[in-house]
Amino acid sequence: MLNNKIYLSGLILTISLSCFNTSIFAASLQILEFKKAQLSQIEQKQICEQLSDVCQQQTPLRSLKTADQKLWLLSGDQIAQFYPSANGLKLKNKWHVGLANDEENTSDGQFIFPKLFPMTESRYAIAIIERSSEMYSGGGAGMERASFYELKESGQTHRFLENYPFSFNRMIRACFSEQEYKSSQGKCHDEDRLSLDIRPIKPMLWQFRYRYSLDVSPVSDSGEKSFKGSRNLNIDLNKAPQQPNIPANWDYQGQG
Q1: Is residue 255 part of a domain?
Q2: Distance CA 198, CA 211 (A)
Q3: Is the pTM of this model over 0.70?
């Protein structure tokens, strides 16, 4: 009996320590957002003295600070990292990412998602979003796919996740007659959507939380029913799958 109690106590302690360590990692590996209008006039002056080409662009500067007080800058297709010194901010590294289209608010093209993703406590990644859209009679869809790149100390980037589903919204017309409009209860479209939330769990392990919903019009002839679903996937960044394991209808990529 005493041995059993000792074993159970040890097991509980092991589980508790494991949960505690996971909580510590999760707290230290926070996804940070690049925000506009965060720089002081002095900081902006010091940055522009070292990155004049970035400051000459029309793209607004976004910035953030990591726990080690390094300042990160995002402008269009460029990212830079500065460290504080006795003489002010000093450029430590910069990365240039070739984009097909670097307008974040356009319906098609590429842009850098304005967040910094920690892979470990000292390694970071960004996501490049490929946005596309399509229109059809009485409806349409917008899709986003994400590829993730590590920002290497050498100033190079390394892609480790490619073309993952990031989000989509789709509307398909369901009302075609006056009677259908009257019977639709104000819902004349079938609508479905997908979203993704990413949570770092520990170094080199992220959790992808996919959320999908389908809202079917009362007059739809699709034969489907309204539905909400979710799937949490732990992604090992050392050996990530080519695509996440989600249902095929959650992974809409367009009619083309």
Answers
A1: yes
A2: 11
A3: yes
